[in-house]
Design brief:
Oligomer: heterodimer
Order of helices and strands of chain A: EHEHEHEHHEHEHEEEEHEEHEHEHH
Number of domains of chain A: 2
CATH architecture of chain B: 3-Layer(aba) Sandwich
Largest sheet of chain A: 7 strands, mixed
CATH topology of chain B: Rossmann fold
Strand content of chain B: 5-15%
CATH topology of the largest domain in chain A: Rossmann fold
Strand content of chain A: 15-25%
Structural class of chain A: alpha/beta
Helix content of chain A: 25-40%
Number of helices of chain A: 12
Strand order of the largest sheet of chain B: 2-1-3-4-8-7
C-alpha cells in the first residue's frame, strides 16, 4: 500500500519511523523542536529532539562525537551551504575517524541539508554543492528526486554505519508523490531507470530528473526514445547501470544542476570515457549550470541553469541532428 | 610519567633517525597533566585529545608497544598504522579520539558527554587541548553548548603559553583560560601543571562532580613545553630555557622531590622507576620493529563500514 505525501513530509516520515524503531536515533538542528506541538517532540521528547544554537561547528562536531559514542544522530542543517561553516567536522572528522582508527570506530551520522533553491534565494542559499563532498572518501552522498526515494533513502541513511550527506532539493519540497506505507528502504548505489529507451541515455539527479523526463517526452514525439537514469545516490554510484545503458544506446547526455567542475556529471563522464569508450557513438555531452554564482535576477538565474531546451539541444547534438540552436 | 618521558625521548631519537617518519609533537614537560588527569579515569570514561597525544594515550592505558608500533606505521599499531601520532584511538581504554586540527576535538567531546547522559550512565568525558585552541570558534561554540546543556564534561586546557609557534599574548588579550569561560558559568580552576599533585587533586575534585552527572568544568594547567611545536622545530620564536630553570618546572623532578621530602619514596626508588620505564620502552620498540607494515588490502576495507 502507498499514500501520497509531499517530498519533505516523506523525509520526515522516514525519520519518525526510524526514531520509533531505534532509540539511538537522535535529531538535532537549528529552529527544530521550538514548540511542544512539534510532532517529533511529542513523540520522542526533548532529550532526543534538540534545538541547537547557530553554531554549525559545535552542532556537527557534537553529532560526530555522539555517533562515536554510540548514538545515530540526524542533523537538520536546512541549507547545504551551512555545512561549509563546519567543513572540518564534515570533511576532516566524520568520514576520517573510522579509517584513521584502523576500523575501531564508526560514525553513523546523517547530515540532512537542502540545496538548489534557485527561486530568488540568490548567491549563498542556492548552490548545488554536493560535488565537493563526493570526493571525500568515507562520506556517502544521497540525492533523492522523488518523495518515495526521499523516504527510502533517508531510512537507509539512518541505518548506515557511515556519515551520509542527505541532500534534498528545495524546489521539490512540496512536490507530491506516492510513498510506500510503513518501513521502506531504498538501497544505496542502485540507480533507478525512470524511463526506458534505446536511442540515447540521459543521466540526471534531483530536480533535473523531472527536466530530463519532460525532455524525453518531447523527444518521443519526434520518434527518439531516451532512457532516463537517476543514480539516486552519487556515493556509492551505480556506474554499472549507466554503462549498460550506454552499451545499448551509444550516446550519453549528463544533466547536473551543479557547475561543470563541481558536478557529478563530470565524474560520470570521466568514468564512462574510461570504461565505456568503445560503446560511444558520439562524444558525451554535459548539461550543467554555467560557471558562476547563482544570481538573484530571475531571467539571469534561468539563463545559468540546465533546462528542458538545453537538454533537447544536447540530445540532438549527440544524435548528430542538425537542429542545434543553443 | 616516567614511562611517558622515556617513551617520548626515545621517539625523539627515532624521529631524528627517520625510523619514526612522520609529523611528531612531543609533550615532554606536560606529563603531570597526562598522569594527573588520565590515570584517574575508568576505561569507559571517554578521552579526546589533540595532536600532542602520546602522553594522554599512555596514561589512559594504551599499551606502550602498540603506541610505538603506531608511530612506526606498523600493522600492530593501535590504529593498524593508519592513524599515526596525531590520530591515536584506543577504544578499549576509552581514548576515543585524537584529532590533528587544533580545537576540532572539543565539539566531539560535547557529543560524547551528551550520549553518556542520554544513556543514563555515569561515564565522564574529558577533552584535552592547548591554549591555542581557545581562540578557535569550535571552542566557544562548544563551551556554549556544554553550558547550555550542563553536560558532564571536563575541559582540560594545557596552557603552555605557546599556540604552535606564537606566544599567547599575540593571540588574545585574555591571559587565563578560566576567565574565558567565566561568563558561561563553568566550574573552573587554574593550577600549576608542572605540579602533578596539584593537577591530581584539582582534577579529582572535578571528576567527582562530573561523575554525578554535573558540569561543565574547566581545568587550566599551566605547563612548560620542553620541546618545540614539532620535532625538528628550530624554535626561533623563543629563547632557550636554561637547564636549571627547566629542572624547576619538570613534573617528574618535582614529584620525586616531593616524595623524597615526604618520605614515601627515596632516590633509588625514583631511579628504579626510570629503569623500569626504559625496559618497557625497549620492549615496545622491539615489538614495533617486529611488527609488519599493514597490507595494502586493508585500505579499501576501512574506508566504509559495511
Amino acid at each position: 500500500m502507498a499514500h501520497e505525501l509531499p517530498y519533505i513530509a516523506a523525509i520526515n516520515e522516514a525519520i519518525h519511523l526510524e526514531m520509533a524503531r531505534d532509540e539511538r536515533v537522535v535529531y538535532f538542528g537549528q529552529n527544530l523542536a521550538t514548540t511542544e506541538d512539534d510532532e517529533f517532540v511529542k513523540a520522542f521528547g526533548h532529550d532526543r529532539v534538540r534545538v541547537t544554537p547557530i553554531s554549525e561547528t559545535a552542532e556537527i562536531g557534537m553529532a560526530v562525537g555522539a555517533a562515536l559514542a554510540g548514538l545515530r544522530p540526524v542533523v537538520e542543517l536546512y541549507m547545504a551551504e551551512f555545512m561549509l561553516v563546519a567543513m572540518n567536522q564534515v570533511v576532516n572528522e566524520a568520514p576520517r575517524f573510522r579509517y584513521m582508527s584502523g576500523g575501531q570506530v564508526s560514525v553513523p551520522l546523517v547530515l540532512k541539508a537542502g540545496y538548489g533553491f534557485t527561486a530568488g534565494w540568490a548567491g549563498q542559499h542556492t548552490g548545488s554543492i554536493y560535488g565537493m563532498f563526493v570526493g571525500v572518501p568515507g562520506l556517502k552522498v544521497a540525492l533523492p528526486a522523488t518523495a518515495a526515494d526521499a523516504k527510502g533513502l533517508m531510512a537507509t541513511a539512518i541505518r548506515d554505519d557511515n556519515p551520509v550527506c542527505f541532500f534534498h532539493h528545495y524546489l521539490l519540497t512540496l512536490e507530491p508523490g506516492e510513498v510506500p506505507d510503513g518501513e521502506y528502504l531504498v538501497p544505496f548505489g542502485q540507480a533507478d531507470v525512470r524511463r526506458a529507451g534505446g536511442d540515447v541515455t540521459i543521466v540526471a539527479t534531483g530536480w533535473t530528473v523531472g527536466k530530463a523526463l519532460a525532455a524525453a517526452e518531447s523527444l518521443a514525439g519526434e520518434g527518439i526514445e531516451a532512457e532516463v537514469i537517476d543514480p539516486r545516490t552519487v556515493v556509492p554510484l551505480d556506474l554499472e547501470t549507466i554503462l549498460s545503458s550506454v552499451q545499448k544506446t551509444g550516446r550519453l547526455v549528463l544533466v547536473d544542476q551543479a557547475t561543470r567542475y563541481g558536478s557529478v556529471s563530470a565524474l560520470i563522464a570521466a568514468d564512462v570515457a574510461e570504461y565505456g569508450f568503445s560503446a560511444l557513438k558520439a562524444p558525451i555531452k554535459q548539461v550543467t549550470a554555467l560557471d558562476a554564482t547563482i544570481p538573484y535576477s530571475e531571467p539571469m538565474e534561468a539563463y545559468l541553469l540546465p533546462d528542458e531546451s538545453k537538454i533537447l539541444t544536447a540530445v540532438r547534438q549527440v544524435l548528430g541532428s542538425a537542429a542545434v540552436t543553443a | 610519567m616516567c614511562r611517558i618521558r622515556c617513551f617520548e625521548e626515545r621517539v625523539a631519537q627515532l624521529a631524528r633517525s627517520r625510523r619514526v617518519h612522520g609529523l611528531i609533537h612531543l609533550s615532554i614537560g606536560g606529563e603531570g597533566v597526562a598522569a594527573g588527569v588520565c590515570c584517574q579515569l575508568r576505561d569507559d570514561d571517554a578521552v579526546y585529545s589533540g595532536h600532542r597525544a602520546h602522553g594522554h594515550a599512555i596514561a589512559k592505558g594504551a599499551p606502550l608497544e602498540r603506541v610505538m608500533a603506531e608511530l612506526m606505521g606498523r600493522a600492530d599499531g593501535l590504529c593498524r598504522g593508519l592513524g599515526g601520532s596525531m590520530h591515536l584511538v584506543d577504544v578499549e581504554h576509552g581514548l576515543l579520539g585524537a584529532t590533528g586540527v587544533v580545537g576540532g576535538n572539543i565539539p566531539l567531546a560535547i557529543g560524547s558527554a551528551l550520549a553518556a547522559r542520554l544513556r543514563g550512565s555515569d561515564q565522564v568525558t574529558v577533552v584535552l587541548f592547548g591554549d591555542g585552541a581557545v581562540q578557535a570558534g569550535s571552542f566557544h561554540e562548544s563551551v556554549n553548548l556544554a553550558a547550555l546543556w550542563q553536560l558532564p564534561v571536563i575541559l582540560v586546557c594545557e596552557n603552555n603559553g605557546f599556540a604552535e609557534f606564537t606566544p599567547r599574548s599575540a593571540h588574545t588579550p585574555i591571559e587565563r583560560v578560566t576567565d574565558v569561560v567565566a561568563a558561561y558559568g563553568f566550574e573552573r580552576r587554574t593550577v600549576d601543571g608542572g605540579d602533578p599533585g596539584a593537577v591530581w587533586e584539582a582534577f579529582g575534585e572535578f571528576l567527582a562532580v562530573a561523575r554525578e552527572g554535573r558540569g561543565p568544568l574547566l581545568l587550566e594547567c599551566l605547563t612548560h613545553r620542553r620541546r618545540g611545536h614539532y620535532e625538528g622545530d628550530p624554535e626561533q620564536y623563543r629563547d632557550p630555557v636554561a637547564e636549571e630553570q627547566w629542572r624547576g618546572s619538570d613534573p617528574i623532578v618535582r614529584l620525586a622531590g616531593r616524595g623524597i621530602a615526604a618520605g614515601w619514596i627515596d632516590q633509588p626508588g625514583v631511579d628504579a622507576l626510570g629503569a623500569a620505564a626504559r625496559v618497557a620502552v625497549d620492549a615496545a620498540l622491539q615489538f614495533a620493529r617486529a611488527s609488519p607494515f599493514p597490507q595494502p588490502e586493508l585500505s579499501a576495507e576501512l574506508v566504509y563500514a559495511r
